[in-house]
Amino acid sequence: MNKVTLDVKGMSCAHCVKAVEGSVGALHGVDRVVVHLQEGKVDVEFNPEIVSLETIKEAIEDQGYEV
Predict the structure, then answer these.
(1) What count of other Cβ atoms lies within 10 Å of the Cβ of residue 8?
(2) Which of 5, 29, 31, 41 gives 51 a disulfide partner, CB atoms 3.0 to 4.6 angstroms apart?
(3) Domains detected in the chain
(4) How far apart are CA 16 and CA 37, in angstroms?
């Protein structure tokens, strides 16, 4: 498992948290995702043999946030 903390701009409310955690958490190979709203950070634990960091970033960007 890899662990990474991403800086994500544009998150401001509980809906943002749900959108990011839902979209990233649904990816095959992602074990855990935690949004830190006040800090603008997202912690992700994932298996790099199954899902790439680029795919995770794209999932966040698809929700309208900047990674």
Answers:
(1) 22
(2) 29
(3) 2-62 (3.30.70.100)
(4) 8
